[in-house]
Amino acid sequence: MSNTLSDELYMRRALELAEKGRYTARPNPKVGCVLVRENTIIGEGWHIRAGTPHAEINALYQAGSLAHGSTAYVTLEPCAHHGKTPPCCDALINAGVNRVVIASEDPYPQVNGKGIECLRKAGINVEVGLMRKEAEELNCGFLSRVRRGRPWVRAKIGMSLDGRTALADGRSKWITSAKSREDVHQWRLSSCAILTGIGTVLADNPQLTARTSHDTGLAPLRVILDSQLRIPLEANVLDKIAPTLIVHRSEAEEIKLPSHINRMSIDTCNNQINLKKVLEDLGNRGINDVFVEAGSVLTGSLLKKGLIDELLVYISPRLLGDQARPMIANVYPESLELSPYFKLVEIVQIDTDIRLRFLPIS
Ligand SMILES: NC(=O)c1ccc[n+]([C@@H]2O[C@H](COP(=O)([O-])OP(=O)(O)OC[C@H]3O[C@@H](n4cnc5c(N)ncnc54)[C@H](OP(=O)(O)O)[C@@H]3O)[C@@H](O)[C@H]2O)c1
Asked: Probe ligand 1: pick from 227, 237, 304, 320, max atoms within 8 Å of CB?
């Protein structure tokens, strides 16, 4: 096998390992590492949870003294600073690794090229960029927070074949199949936060928790945009099962929320909560990605502001007719050329439904 081919093979394995941290690594990035000597994998590791050893350390531990003279394949630049754990660069150098292949640079200010520099200074052959696209996709949330100061926004929409998201009277339970809803719970579990508007809370009284068999001990933050604080005190999202943040207008009339509920007061822009500010604030709280499960009003607002990074659409083979609610409200493109346009990146059949994933074309 050529070197390039085997490099790709090992990096693909490192990406698979990184994916194992999908539900637990946040707010840290998902990282995988493979150590190879004489065409044999001698150590594998991934980052499981913030505060625990990084992927490189776990792989080195498995390899033991065999790590001397090996090549490390890492999906993200190794750290060179003392955080909650010691620098991975030092560990790779001390173990005698002589080549490091890195998929993507880590823009985190304390790393940001320093890891690569540190390894090179120690005489290690460092190559950067193999399967960068895949590695960056894996950490789109972490990278968005570090580079743009705001989380990655993934909007989920469950709709009928004719693009409707609720009946005219607001009922939407359930448009999609039970299997699709199970899939939604997995996405919730992998997200740092779930965002909705007060319209959905009043119509559906959702719990907005990740109900799966997988217990990570990391419940996503429930974020409710409720400018006038209309939320009923008996709403399910005010329970203690998961943390909740209520975002309201600074001048909203005070209501007494339960003491375990966090609140954020935000200035309005044209009488509406400033969505960009909300996202920036969430980024400052270490939120990498936001899973939007809102009605057409909030989804439409996010779209209009260019704040949707990904659409996750579940289509059920059901027709709801033209009186039912649309997918997005208050978006009126002046021409087809000016209409929001997306690139389809994935199609998955789930039971009777189809799940489509789109990225906006800017
Ligand atoms: N099919 C699906 O995937 C799906 C998912 C969720 C919900 N739904 C359905 O959607 C319906 C509710 O839809 P909806 O559109 O009324 O509710 P929504 O989009 O969840 O919430 C809209 C409300 O959020 C508040 N809000 C605060 N800041 C905002 C901003 N910057 N931009 C937009 N809204 C902001 C506004 O109320 P204030 O001005 O009072 O703050 C607004 O009326 C329900 O029938 C529900 O079943 C369907």
From this structure: 227
Tell how strand 193-197 and strand 221-225 pair up. parallel
Q: How many helices (H) and strands (E) does the chain have?
A: 10, 16
Closest ligand 1 atom, residue 173 Cα: 47
Q: What pLDDT digit, counting tens, does each position of 174-202 carry?
A: 999 999 999 999 999 999 999 999 999 99
Is the distance from the beta carbon of residue 204 to the nearest atom of ligand 1 less than 6 Å? yes
- Which residues in the chain come in under a pLDDT of 50? none
Q: What's the rounded Cα separation, in Å, for the pair 158 and 7?
A: 40
Helix, strand or coil, per DSSP, at residue 218: coil
Looking at ligand 1, which residue's alpha carbon is closest to its atom 11? 295
Q: Taking Cα atoms as reference points, which of 259, 155, 242, 180 lies closest to residue 206? A: 242
With a threshold of 0.85, does the pTM exceed it? yes
